[in-house]
């Protein structure tokens, strides 16, 4: 068993199950378990392209919409990589820490949304600076590809969210610190579980994708200060747009933002 497969199996073993009361659980898990069996049997290897949507949906006897939901879940978990107009591929990437443990601690200690953003701002701003310092050409190419994918998905918030989270993971990988990469992997996976239920409320993602492009350019040009500051600014804007609570216990300006639909844009 090669190293990549061992890492992938750890991700599978730690992957949480969806709540039983969700209407789409059965069809989503049908897709997840089917892809999982193909990977565990060796029928699919990292980098392999999965069968076309129409063919796969027919074989599983589900709609293409249900198939996309399952594949979106896998992509957000870091198991699959979606390339618009090309196909869906088995992805490579760092293993994540136990996301279930993160959720358990949240339940026990009452983690709040603003606390998640505070942690992300501290971690990801510095990670972006490290990525600008240490990132390689393949990281730059991958970031450019995800920015292009975000532009392509600007009218599809659920698809946009997947590429948004992958963008942040690539930055973490570009930091060349596997511990930080694994932590970011865990945080983004936990974030997807909550954001995928509300992201459709985003009505204008253009401001968000433009900010991601600026972050990418700062990293590509190895401008560590700009990468740090732009990431911090992006996450603070995302926090405000999502109406997160502030540490002082007051609500953010979410109510004001709701009066301006075009501002509910940052999916990160």
> Could you tell me the strand content as a percent range?
under 5%
Main beta-sheet strand count, sense and barrel state: 2 strands, antiparallel
> Class by helix and strand content?
mainly alpha
CATH topology of the largest domain: Four Helix Bundle (Hemerythrin (Met), subunit A)
Q: Identify the quaternary structure here.
A: single chain
H-E string: HHHHEEHHHHHHHH
CATH superfamily of the largest domain: GntR ligand-binding domain-like
Number of helices: 12
Q: What proportion of the residues is helical, as a percent range? A: 55-70%
Under the CATH scheme, which architecture of the largest domain would be assigned?
Up-down Bundle
- Low-pLDDT windows of residues: 1-8, 14-23, 244-264
What separation lies between the terminal Cα atoms? 35 Å
Mean pLDDT: 77
| Widest sheet: strand ordering | 1-2
Radius of gyration: 18 Å
Count of discrete structural domains = 2
Shape: globular
CATH class wording of the largest domain: Mainly Alpha
E-strand count: 2
